[in-house]
Inverse folding.
C-alpha cells in the first residue's frame, strides 16, 4: 500500500482536534470528513487526497472515545495513520474498524510532509520511497489482523457466531 | 493479582489472568448515551444483527446534546429512543429524569463493586470509584457488547498510587488528580489501570473518589479504580439490594509502578490550556482574567460539588463581565440542590442554572466560548477548542476554585473565601 504523508510532529493530538464535538450531532462519514482535523489544521481538508497517510508523533488520538475520529479520517480518504504511539481507545477503535493504525517509534522525525511511503504490512516495514529509507514498525497483533481481515469487529463476531450456531 | 486482574479473571471464567493477556470478558453494565450509541445501533441493524443480548444489562440516558440542541441531535436522540422501545430496555432515563451517564448510573444503583462496566465514552473510568472495572470504548465495541454481552480486552498492567496526608481546607479530590496528572503526564498511565489507595483516598467520600477515577483517562489510562470499602458499601446499599462481590489486590500483587504522594501541603491546582497535565499551584499563578466560570460535568457536577461552590457564593455576586453557568449533573442532583436552597444561592449570586447535560464541557452548547475567551471550569479537558472557538482557553480546577474565581473575575484561591 502506497500513499503520500501528511506529517504532524506535535504530540498528544486529541480526538477533539481530529473531529470537534460540535460536529458529533451526526455519524455520517461524508459530513464528518468535511471537518476532519479542523481545529489543528483548518486547510487539511483542502489538501488531503484519497489514499494519503497521516504521520504523527506520540499519543495520537488521546481524549474522547469518539469513533467519529476514525470515521472522519476514513471519510476523507486517509488509508492509514502511522504514529510514534497511539492513545488506547483510538487504537482500539482503529482495530475494530479494520482501519490501519501503525505504531512506528520515531517516525514523526524521519518523514517529511509529502514523502511517499509504502507500507509492507506482512514484512513489518515502511519504505520511504522519497528518501530511500526503511523503518521497522511494531507488528500488528494476530487477533487484530484477523479482525481487520474480517472487515472489523462486528463482521468478525458475525462470522464467529455463524460458526458456533452451526 | 491486582484488583483489576481479579475482576477480569472472574469475568472470563479463569482462575488467573496476567497483564498483556488477551481475554474476552463478560460485561455487566453497558451504558448508552445519545452520541455514540446511535451509530452502534446502525452498525448492528445494517449487518442484520439488531439484537440485544440482555436488555437488563443496558442502561440508557441521553446526556451529551439533550434537551436536543438542534435537529441533528434530535435525530440522534430519537434513534436512541426508538431502539430502547424496540428492545424493551427498561433502564431508560428520558429528559426530565436524565443525567450525565457517569453521574446517574452510580446514583441510581446501576454500578456495583466487582462488576465490569463499559460505555462509548472515555470517562467511563469514573465507575472505578465503586471498585468496578470500568472503561471507555468506541461505538463498535459498544455494538459488540450489546450484541454478545462480551468484549475483548488486553489485561492492563496496574500502577498503584498511595496517597497520604490530610487535605487542607479548600483543597479537594480534583486537586489531587490534577496533581497526579501533572506529575505523570497525559500518557503517564497509557494502557494501564490506575489503582488509587492510601489513607487520603479512604477518607474521601464516594463522590469525591469519582472525581479522581473520572480523570484517569486524562493520564491515558484504561481504567481507574478505588477498592471498595465500608463507604462504598454504604453508598451502594442506599441504592440497591442486588448482590455483589468485593475484590482486593493481593499483598504480593505486581505493579508496573508504585507512586507515593503526600498531599498534606497540596494547594488548589489549576491546569492551564491546553493539556490537563499543565497543573499550576494556585499561589504561583499571576492574574488571569476570566470571561466564564463553569460548574458541572461528570467530573464535578454532583451534589457535594454544588454544595462546595454554594458555600463560597452565598451572599456574594459573580463579578461584572463574568458568566457563571451551573449544570447539575443529574435530575436528582438538580432537585436536591433546589431542596437544599443551593439553586437560590446560585441564582442570587447571578449564575445561570441549566438542566443536566454534558453541554459546554465538550463544546456542545449551553456555554460555548468565543474567540479569545477564557473559562475556568470544573470539567476534565482543556484541549484546543474543547469548549468552543479554537482560540478560546479552558482552565481546569475544583468547584471551589471555579466559584471563587467567578466572584473575583480572575483565577482565585478559594481559601480567600473559606
Amino acid at each position: 500500500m502506497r500513499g503520500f504523508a501528511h506529517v504532524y510532529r506535535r504530540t498528544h493530538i486529541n480526538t477533539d482536534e481530529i473531529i470537534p464535538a460540535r460536529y458529533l450531532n451526526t455519524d455520517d462519514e461524508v459530513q464528518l470528513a468535511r471537518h476532519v482535523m479542523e481545529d489543528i489544521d483548518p486547510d487539511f481538508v483542502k489538501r488531503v487526497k484519497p489514499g494519503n497517510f497521516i504521520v504523527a508523533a506520540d499519543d495520537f488520538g488521546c481524549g474522547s472515545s469518539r469513533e467519529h475520529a476514525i470515521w472522519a479520517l476514513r471519510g476523507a480518504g486517509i488509508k492509514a495513520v502511522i504514529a510514534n504511539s497511539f492513545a488506547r481507545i483510538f487504537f482500539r477503535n482503529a482495530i475494530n474498524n479494520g482501519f490501519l493504525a501503525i505504531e512506528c517509534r520515531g517516525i514523526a522525525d524521519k518523514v517529511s510532509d509529502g514523502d511517499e511511503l509504502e507500507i509492507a504490512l506482512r514484512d513489518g516495514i515502511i519504505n520511504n520511497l522519497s528518501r530511500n529509507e526503511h523503518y521497522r514498525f511494531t507488528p500488528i497483533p494476530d487477533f487484530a489482523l484477523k479482525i481487520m481481515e474480517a472487515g472489523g469487529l462486528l463482521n468478525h463476531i458475525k462470522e464467529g457466531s455463524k460458526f458456533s450456531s452451526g | 493479582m491486582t484488583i483489576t486482574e481479579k475482576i477480569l479473571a472472574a469475568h472470563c471464567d479463569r482462575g488467573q489472568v496476567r497483564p498483556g493477556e488477551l481475554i474476552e470478558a463478560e460485561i455487566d453494565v453497558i451504558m448508552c448515551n445519545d452520541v455514540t450509541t446511535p451509530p452502534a445501533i446502525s452498525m448492528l441493524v445494517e449487518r442484520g444483527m439488531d439484537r440485544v443480548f440482555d436488555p437488563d444489562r443496558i442502561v440508557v440516558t441521553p446526556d451529551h446534546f439533550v434537551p436536543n440542541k438542534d435537529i441533528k441531535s434530535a435525530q440522534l436522540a430519537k434513534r436512541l429512543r426508538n431502539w430502547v422501545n424496540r428492545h424493551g430496555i427498561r433502564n431508560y432515563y428520558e429528559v426530565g429524569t436524565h443525567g450525565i451517564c457517569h453521574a446517574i448510573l452510580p446514583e441510581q444503583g446501576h454500578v456495583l463493586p466487582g462488576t465490569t462496566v463499559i460505555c462509548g465514552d472515555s470517562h467511563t473510568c469514573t465507575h472505578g470509584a465503586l471498585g468496578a472495572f470500568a472503561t471507555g470504548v468506541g461505538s463498535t465495541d459498544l455494538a459488540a457488547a450489546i450484541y454478545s454481552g462480551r468484549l475483548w480486552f488486553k489485561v492492563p498492567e496496574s500502577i498503584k498510587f498511595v496517597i497520604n496526608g490530610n487535605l487542607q481546607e479548600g483543597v479537594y479530590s480534583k486537586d489531587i488528580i490534577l496533581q497526579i496528572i501533572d506529575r505523570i503526564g497525559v500518557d503517564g498511565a497509557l494502557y494501564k489501570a490506575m489503582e488509587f489507595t492510601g489513607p487520603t483516598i479512604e477518607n474521601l467520600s464516594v463522590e469525591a473518589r469519582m472525581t479522581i477515577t473520572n480523570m484517569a483517562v486524562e493520564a491515558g489510562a484504561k481504567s481507574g479504580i478505588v477498592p471498595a470499602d465500608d463507604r462504598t458499601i454504604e453508598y451502594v446499599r442506599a441504592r440497591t439490594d442486588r448482590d455483589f462481590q468485593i475484590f482486593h489486590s493481593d499483598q504480593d500483587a505486581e505493579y508496573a509502578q508504585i507512586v507515593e504522594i503526600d498531599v498534606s501541603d497540596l494547594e488548589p491546582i489549576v491546569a492551564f490550556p491546553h493539556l490537563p497535565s499543565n497543573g499550576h499551584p494556585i499561589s504561583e499563578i499571576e492574574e488571569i482574567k476570566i470571561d466564564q466560570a463553569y460548574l458541572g460535568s461528570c467530573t464535578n457536577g454532583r451534589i457535594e460539588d454544588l454544595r462546595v461552590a454554594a458555600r463560597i457564593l452565598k451572599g456574594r455576586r459573580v463579578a461584572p463581565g463574568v458568566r457563571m453557568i451551573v449544570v447539575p449533573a443529574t435530575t436528582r442532583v438538580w432537585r436536591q440542590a433546589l431542596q437544599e436552597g443551593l439553586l437560590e444561592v446560585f441564582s442570587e449570586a447571578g449564575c445561570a442554572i441549566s438542566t443536566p447535560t454534558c453541554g459546554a464541557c465538550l463544546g456542545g452548547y449551553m456555554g460555548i466560548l468565543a474567540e479569545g475567551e477564557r473559562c475556568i471550569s470544573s470539567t476534565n479537558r482543556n484541549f484546543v477548542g474543547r469548549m468552543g472557538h479554537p482560540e478560546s482557553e479552558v482552565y481546569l480546577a475544583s468547584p471551589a476554585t471555579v466559584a471563587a474565581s467567578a466572584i473575583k473575575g480572575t483565577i482565585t484561591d478559594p481559601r480567600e473565601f473559606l
About this structure: Residues 51 and 114 of chain A are 13 Å apart (CA to CA). Chain A has one domain: 2-139. The first helix of chain A runs from residue 15 to 18. The first strand of chain A starts at residue 2 and ends at 8.
